[in-house]
Amino acid sequence: MIIKLTLASALLASGIGLMAPLAIAARADDTCVVTPTESLPAECQAPPASTGALPGADEAVARALRLVGSHGYYQLCARLAANIWGRPHSGYYSAAVQWRQMLQTGNAHRDDRQPPVGALLFWDTGGPYGHVAVHIGDGQIVSNDIGDSVSGEGGVYRVRFELIESKWGATYLGWAPPVYPSSS
């Protein structure tokens, strides 16, 4: 296993022979190496990237917490998530479109309930738009609309991420890093 990891590290460092990024996950008896187009074998553990924090997450979480208690984000979850990451808008028509793009580009971590701090978490709400929120750690998210007492309020709330499922009946899809179009 050490030899394989050393060889993979040397190839990554030199850029020789690798055309796509690799995911490396440890198992008890060997190492799994897959390209972004392959699925991680079930016998492998999740890659280390599914814990910890994403680069820039500290600043994003600080912005998210400053937005808690504000209003004006009614049905604008993608904009809220983009604002948390310091962007004026997401560049996607909806959270559902953004999730599909994350799937197509290999950035989606389907059904992974151990997102890193700063990750964008996605849900299927049964409608065409979906929902996205930002994970701020310890199973908590900053999300819009979930605590509104009046429809259209567009409040920003700090809640447990399971509340989106239990209150709205939404289906958790997974998480992705904050990848936005360069023009947004």
Largest sheet: 6 strands, antiparallel
Unreliable spans are: 1-50
Percent strand equals 15-25%
Q: Treating each run of at least 4 consecutive H or I residues as one helix, how many helices? A: 5
Q: Return the CATH topology of the largest domain.
A: endopeptidase fold (from Nostoc punctiforme)
Question: Helices and strands: which structural class?
Answer: alpha+beta
Number of domains: 2
Helix and strand string, N-terminal first? HEEHHHEEEEEHE
Mean pLDDT: 80
CATH architectural designation of the largest domain: Alpha-Beta Complex
Report on this structure.
The chain is an alpha+beta fold and 184 residues long. It folds into two domains: 44 residues, no CATH class; 120 residues, Alpha-Beta Complex (endopeptidase fold (from Nostoc punctiforme)), CATH 3.90.1720.10. Helices cover 26% and strands 21% of the residues. The N terminus is likely disordered.
Concise summary:
With 184 residues, the protein is α+β, with helices and mostly antiparallel strands.
Topology:
Layout: H1 2-14, E1 23-26, E2 31-34, H2 57-67, H3 77-84, H4 95-104, E3 109-110, E4 120-124, E5 131-137, E6 140-144, E7 156-160, H5 163-168, E8 171-176
Antiparallel strand pairs: 1-2, 3-8, 4-5, 4-8, 5-6, 6-7
